[in-house]
Amino acid sequence: MRTDLDRRTIGARRRRECIRKATDVLVEMVAEAVASGIQTSHLLFDSWFAHPATMRKLLAKGVHTLCMLKITEKIFYHYQGEDLHLAAIYRKIRKRRGRAKILASIMVSIGENDKGIPVPAKIVFVRDRRTKKWLALLSTDTSLGSEKIVTAYKRRWDIEVFFKMAKSFFRPIRNPGKSIRPESEKTGSTRRPPWLRRPGRLRFSLIRGIPRKN
């Protein structure tokens, strides 16, 4: 980071955040939101932040995770006495036949908390309508039913729509092929709201509560 900047300013703080790991910044942002009085019970995000260590840190702050999982052989979950990656678990479990949207749901452990107690989580395998393959959703709130987990995750699209609209109104469009000017350019305003002053990768949604039925 530039040495001529005043490190006490908000700008310097944002620059320090941009060179840190996004998962660490995410946990701090959620802690700030909760400390400011925002009431939430679940954090919804895509596979970008789907790391067991991040989920455990969020749960330690009293926030449950609901996310899409990465299909990779580098992340392991404890299932039936073994540490397996997601694809290995899928091959091992029994799936529903036919055209069921929800193929299976299982309980796993995503590691241990600071007290050495295993942290349980629920994984729901669903059918991908576009590719005819499968996707996996995880919730650290094991009291939620499979249908509720799937329904709640559908809200993720709202994050993408909101983020795109917000950028079009408050940030300059750098693509020369775009002819639509942002609202800040029309009004002469250069100030951006707080939720656009953070790294652009941090797209998530705080959910106040999810009904426990189904």
Main sheet: which strands, in order across?
A: 5-6-7-2-1-8
Counting DSSP H or I runs of 4 or more residues, the number of helices is 7
Query: Would you list the SSEs in sequence order as H and E?
Result: HHEHEEEHEEEHHHE
Morphology: globular
Low-confidence stretches: 175-202
Number of strands: 8
Helix percentage range: 25-40%
Instruction: Give a short account of the largest sheet.
Output: 6 strands, mixed
Give a topology summary.
Blueprint: H1 10-18, H2 22-35, E1 42-45, H3 52-60, E2 64-68, E3 76-79, E4 82-85, H4 86-92, E5 102-112, E6 118-127, E7 134-139, H5 146-153, H6 156-170, H7 183-187, E8 205-207
Parallel strand pairs: 1-2
Antiparallel strand pairs: 1-8, 2-7, 3-4, 5-6, 6-7
Plain-language structure description:
It is a single chain. The protein is α+β, with helices and mostly antiparallel strands and 214 residues long. It is built from 7 helices and 8 strands, in the order ααβαβββαβββαααβ. The chain has helices at 10-18, 22-35, 52-60, 86-92, 146-153, 156-170, 183-187; strands at residues 42-45, 64-68, 76-79, 82-85, 102-112, 118-127, 134-139, 205-207. The protein has a 6-stranded mixed sheet, sandwiched between helices. Strands 3-4 form a two-stranded antiparallel ribbon. A hairpin with a 5-residue loop joins β5 and β6. Mean pLDDT is 79; it is low at 175-202.
Please summarize what this structure is:
The protein has seven helices and eight strands, in the order H-H-E-H-E-E-E-H-E-E-E-H-H-H-E.
